[in-house]
Amino acid sequence: MTEIEAFLSANPSEIVTLILEDYVKAPNGLTKVFNDSGLLKYWFPVSRMPQNGQDWPLVSDMVASNQRLIVFTSVESKQESEGIAYQWNFMVENQYGDGGMKAGNCFNRAESALLNDMSKSLVLVNYFPSIPVKLTACVQNSADLIGMLDTCYHASANRWANFVAVDYYKRSEGGGAFQATDMLNGRLLCGCDDVHACVPGSTSGACTPP
After folding, report:
1. What order do you get walking across the sheet with 85-86 strand by strand?
2. Strand pairing of 85-86 and 16-20?
3. What are phi and psi of 137, to 5 degrees?
4. Are 140 and 175 in contact (CB under 8 A)?
5. Domain layout of the chain by residue ranges
6. Are the C-beta atoms of 177 and 169 separated by less than 8 Å?
7. Residues 84-118: pLDDT tens digits?
8. Which of 84, 85, 86, 129 has CA atoms 20 to 30 A from the CA of 69?
9. 85 forms bridges with which residues in the sheet?
10. Residue pLDDT, tens place only, 169-184
């Protein structure tokens, strides 16, 4: 947490999202961790999070208000007791592990609403095997990952993923997870398949319809 605080302090235009598999049992224990690490000053409050699939604030607005830390918990009660957003109120997510790596097939994990549930505004795509293998990650994080993101786009009511979860994100046979992120940001920002093509005056030929 102190590393995250240091990053946010040193990078005042960056936003960090934490999606916690939460096993903290102590009352207000998670809040204490964020308070002790100095992260509460960056907190994006639940009250500003969009309900029923509405749009999120602009990045520029979040930066201007310095509310640059978004935190989700897997424990439903903590949204009421500690003001920490319950993940499944805001997000859909596909199956993780081997079940989520079948080409052409993208479906929700058990805890998530259906991927095409438009009342949830965020989409997370998992693409990693049940048992992590560093060697095969090079293949999985390349064309296979791009293919799954496209499959999940259609399964999620034509919505591109906001988050991607992979193993060994630096390993690939090409652009890997970084290329996938550039593609997603391009699609979300300007409809192009590379975020660099969204820059005014860009000569990139990577802008094609989704």
Report:
1. 16-20, 69-73, 85-86
2. unpaired
3. -60, -30
4. no
5. 2-89, 91-198
6. yes
7. 999 999 999 999 999 999 999 999 999 999 999 99
8. 129
9. 72
10. 999 998 999 999 999 9
What is the 3 state secondary structure string of the chain? Answer: CHHHHHHHHHCCCCCEEEEECCCCCCCCHHHHHHHHCCCHHHECCHHHCCCCCCCCCCHHHHHHHCCCEEEEECCCHHHHHCCCEEHHHCEEEECCCHHHCCCCCCCECCCCCCCCCCCCCEEEEECCCCCCCHHHHHHHCCHHHHHHHHHHHHHCCCCCCCEEECCCCCCCCCCHHHHHHHHHHHHHHHCCCCHHHHCCCCCCCCCCCC
User: What is the C-alpha separation between 172 and 150, in angstroms, rounded?
Assistant: 18
Q: Could you report the per-residue pLDDT of 19-78, keeping only the tens digit for each?
A: 999 999 999 999 999 999 999 999 999 999 999 999 999 999 999 999 999 999 999 999
The answer to whether 92 and 124 have CB atoms below 8 angstroms apart is: yes
